[in-house]
Amino acid sequence: MMYVDLLLPVPLEGLFTYSVPPQMEGAVRFGVRVLAPFGPKTKHVGVAIRVHGDEPEGIAVRDVLRVLDKAPVVTETQYKLWQWMADYYMSPIGEVYKAALPSGLKAEDGYRPRRETYVRLRPEFRSAAALHVAIGMLAKAERQRAAFETYLTLSGMAEAADGDAAATPAEVSRDELMNASHATAATVKALETRGLIETYPRELARLNTGGEPDFGKMKQLGEAQQRAFDEVVASMAEKNVTLLHGVTSSGKTEIYIHLIKRAMDSGQQVLYLLPEIALTVQVRERLRRVFGGRMGIYHSRYSDNERVEMWQKQLSGSPFDVIVGARSAVLLPFTRLGLVIVDEEHEQSFKQQDPAPRYHARSTAIVLARMCGAKVLLGTATPCAETYRNATTGKYGLVELTTRYKQIELPEFRVVDIKDLQRRKMMSGPFSPLLMEKMREAVEGGRQAILFQNRRGFAPMVECRQCGWVPRCRNCDVSLTLHRSLGKLTCHYCGATYEVPATCPACGGRDLVAKGYGTEKIEDRVRELLPEASVARMDLDTTRTNGAYERIIDDFAAGRTNVLIGTQMIGKGLDFDRVSVVGILNADTMMNYPDFRAYEYAFTMMAQVGGRAGRKGSRGLVVLQTKSPDTPLIGQVVRGDYKAFFRDLCEERQAFGYPPFAHLIYIYLKHRHDDVVEHAAAELGSTLRQWFGARVLGPDRPAVARVKTLSIRKIVLKLELGIDLGKVKQYLRMAQKQVGDDPRYRSVATYFDVDPM
Question: DSSP secondary-structure letter at 424?
Fold first, then answer.
């Protein structure tokens, strides 16, 4: 009897053993999907990992039900990567499998090929004489004749009607014929009934078929770019990972394009990771002009069927040479990966938060590259602290690009003390006089402005002026955000919406006011102050639908929009020619966030958003509004002095034991009853302290201690560099099991966040 160990998409550790019926023995092998029973009624699509003859002892083994593939859909390298992810990020490998495969490959009948109906001449009418007979048959059917003659034109058969030679018609879809001839489906059906044409289904790919590459569209590198390119190539000869630290608008993308071409010339595949779909839009078009149909796109906004086709394409004999994608693209199958580019490597978006596995795409890409023998290039103007330390200590190669492309000057930063202006009542809502003046000049001069506010909605909260009551979510420990366009109060954690109250339920007062500014309110204010401006907003609310990113970005890039207001989306490497002024409306909200990374995020965000100004032509201006102009961080942003910022950051992080001088693991516990999770967390913390001592902090209530009706506790584990992380994780799993085995806490969910962001 043969048996197979299956990987199933369930949040449980390990593999599951099934017996293989004799008639399936030849078909079940590593990497193919099989349908298997799980529990009394459930069936799952699993991946075969090991086929063997070892009969399990002491358990009843069930048969697999059906083999779903003729060839493997998972490579051995992928499975090794999944094992690493499960181990490093402390997540069951079933959850890794669930995250990696598109849904259509995890369902018995989940994927549906895209089919379209085509029309063609019946074989007996593919000669000049037969065509004349056919046209004669339609003499009294004017609409059918018009449709038939349109088909002859589209298929190239109109010329065949002038001679006696038979011809092979070009393919024509039914929709194409109906559109070109203004015919109805009934008219086309009538031609088919007469026996003149026949219809047939054709399976169509949903993926990019952008034509042949055109390497002539690659731009020549400038002197500084060429030097950086040469240094990157030299670094890759010695180091597996290289950091390209280049200021904003220094031409890093063009260097990437030349490196991609170099890899393709060597027969290698390239993975190009980007942090946001918004950025993918612009980079996609730049790369498509050069690499054509040899480039594919992969991200979460694609339909599941598109993602399945991408997966299958990469396993075929003609995979894409270049994959451009967001975080999940690192989980695709590659057969000859030679280069991985992680653009904007500092971005938090590369870290998966929920659901598990809580992996970081940058770290995962580095491990994938090592498994494939590929090289990694990390690119950014503002490296994350861990990456820059690895580069400056020699673990990674380091190449620096300190000038903008074509020697364009870096933007000028002007700091505005809004605390003083508010005291003197000189602010126009969230805008200082300087920012209003520069915005107006930009609009009147045919230039553009970008306004950055990292809060969406109309106002962060509503408050009663009489008693101070603030509406809060019933499911989460947060105040509700007012979305005036929806006419609702919304929770940004669970998505629940509530009606806006007309009176205060606490005191009955009617003086309810919207406090603070979200992007929606700023948009209204700009329209009021600059009625002649065309204004757009880019945040989560305006980019939910397919194509929304493209529309907003295309309109702004083409100059159809004067002012773009947005959250952190607008600071992620977008490239616009006409932006002369950028407004950072409130730097303090970033600097004062309760997180040890707050200053790092603030520096990164202000530098990146500011870098959108003056990328072509004249020097740009960044108006940085803050109530704390004397903070050293503000001066470092203004000077663009990343090295001074990093030096100060390292002094503080080293003194308090935070990355890059320590490892962090967060342990979260969740339960619907607060007292249950409180006691479970206390016992878990006590157990961990017995093993790790002062390395354990907490348990504490996080900043948001209840989400989706579940109460949360958080334990922080600080570990010095060089500690045996494998042994640490063994102890953590033992502690997790100990809590889970206690009858009082069996329903408490416990999970880990390794290297949290």
Answer: T
